[in-house]
Design brief:
The chain is an alpha+beta fold and about 725 residues long. Strands 9, 10, 11, 12, 13, 14, 15, 18 and 19 form a nine-stranded mixed sheet that branches. Strands 1, 2, 5, 6, 7 and 8 form a six-stranded mixed sheet that branches. It has a two-stranded antiparallel ribbon with strand order 3-4. Helix 15 packs across helix 17. The two termini are about 15 Å apart. Bound molecules: adenosine-5'-diphosphate (ADP) and magnesium ion. Adenosine-5'-diphosphate binds near residues 211, 215, 296 and 344.
Length: about 725
Amino acid sequence: MSKLRFRVVETAFKKKIAEVALATERPSEYFGTYVFNREKMFKYLPEKAYEQLVNSIDNGTPLNHEIADAVANGMRKWAMEKGATHYTHWFHPLTEGTAEKHDAFVEHDGKGGMIEKFSGKLLIQQEPDASSFPNGGIRNTFEARGYTAWDPSSPAFIEGDTLCIPTIFISYTGESLDYKAPLLKSLEAVNKAAVDVCHYFNPEVKKVYSYLGWEQEYFLVDEGLYAVRPDLLLTGRTLMGHESSKNQQLEDHYFGAIPTRVMEFMKELEQEAWKLGIPLKTRHNEVAPNQFELAPIFEECNLANDHNLLIMSLMRKVSRKHGFRVLLHEKPFKGVNGSGKHNNWSLGTDTGILLMAPGKTPENNLRFITFVVNVLKAVYKHNALLKASISSATNAHRLGANEAPPAIISSFLGAQISKVLENLENSDSEDFKLAGKQGLKLDIARIPELLIDNTDRNRTSPFAFIGNRFEFRAVGSSANCAAAMLVLNSAVAEQLKAFKAEVDAKIAAGKDTFAAILEVIRKDIKECKAIHFDGNGYSEEWKEEAKRRGLDCETSVPLIFDAYLKESTVKMFESLGIMSKKELEARNEVKWETYTKKIQIEARVLGDLAMNHIIPIATKYQSPLIDNVYKMKELFPADKASQLSSRNLEIIEDIANRTNFIKEKVDEMIEARKVANKIESEREKAIVYHDQIVPMLEEIRYHIDKLELVVDDQIWTLPKYRELLFIR
Ligand code: ADP
Ligand code: MG
């Protein structure tokens, strides 16, 4: 190992594990300490304000300014008691992170001094100077400013010395400039549509919640080593690096004992998360070395998503205290598994029914099958869009890389549910006996009693049914879950509405309700059959089969984004009032631009490293070899000398060939970028970056990785995979 690298490892090694004062109380005693939850609302708000705020949270009733003032005042009092001096509107611009701008709780008191103040006006709405956030042209077109507006359905919380108020981010003319606004609208749409369908079975249902339980995968690397890998630092992934001789082939990391240093990090992270009301539950080693996972208990989708964004920023902070850097990139290391974010999703009623869970009675099972089939049909109809919702320059490395499903959306149901659907599809209504005794008791011979836990698992499916929920596994580890969740909830809402219209038409024509439902389900099962696939999603045959079935098989990310502008997509979002065509177009501009920029940065970093690290180092190693060959000639007769130098000659030539290739490719890549950068259309530009630049990155890397194997380890300055990937 080179001296430089050794020093870095040493520093990191010697850095004492942060001496964190770990809480000794039980989590239940301090859970939510830093959250303005109902308990604190009750304590800090006047009775009327409390009642109206709770009503607003539960039923979406608007709050007037007087109440907002009372809420702001109560929040400020509580926050100041907890040591907060500032507040911020906390929002999710289209950058995949969160944004905040802090203001102190101070105002002039009119007598030359200061008082602490926070008004309802400031709580409800702000106008951040947000001209630098991506907006896809919306804010230019409309000459409009951006506003953040309070989302009372997600509670305010304190981070450090700042009271954070979850907000949506919209333009002056009302277009969404973030993920939260359309997510909230999609949740409302699915609520309405699902309540209506529930009423066929349970008239007392008033509200349907969409639930999300995310599982977050991540890598940890030593901070010292991270600091001397410019590629990790600037792009979040290694753009070069030969596979370590040992990586994950022994499968000894998965669920293995968690390294002590990592455990300390996890403990502190959990405690910080619990204080912020994030119900973390699970932690374990993942498949790749240095890869881990955490997961909370599922929550209402909007809150769960805020919590995911919050945990990502907490992970970044806490990891540094422990001498680590957390990598949320989908593919930080070639040759070992990448990271995803499984989104466990379901719908549930205010009466406590999980709509994706089988029940004990035939009616309950009919309700269950109704919802499952509607979800399948929604996923079928919008499979290309769902893929677009999880696609990004970074997630593209993971999908289809034999560790995650291919870039094709299909759904796994397991043997039992598959059988039920098959039976339903192949029988006609006479097979079902309706035994009416006090209302309706549906005795459907073909629907057996289903048990929650009897579903099998299939890790290769991007959208798998698992007992009481679907698990959308294609979401990227760095993504904002809202992108995928708003598409899924919207698609399901649209489908449930269509389903209800069909069933109602049959009822109006004199059909019995359950018979009508069965008829529509039977038709739907047939129509969306193509989406159902229980086989091996990693196999080559599946790719062929999926093409035959007409599922979207596009693999180029810029082209995948086109699905956002398909007629069926625009129709869906517009009819549900979630997004307009204009918003969709603007957001796609942002997507294409972000894609291009990410690849552009990678290309620049790789070009730099190739020219000022790799070629100089390889050449430096080449020189003593050449020297050696000459000296051999002085020492030995010509024949013998050339025989003895044959290995060195080979290496000299190999280095020359590879460094020449690298230099030529880097030049070619720079030229290709120059041409691409002139392309005006963001879409076309992204396509060129995908088609031309991405393959060049791979070609250059290939030769760099080969050089890493021959060049003297003493002078190779970049930490290698074997150093990066095994935490000591
Ligand atoms: P896995 O076996 O897939 O690794 P985990 O236990 O790591 O499962 O995570 C499963 C996640 O699914 C958790 O967040 C859990 O709370 C969530 N979950 C469980 N039931 C539901 C449900 N009905 N709807 C949404 N999420 C759920
Ligand atoms: Mg899972």
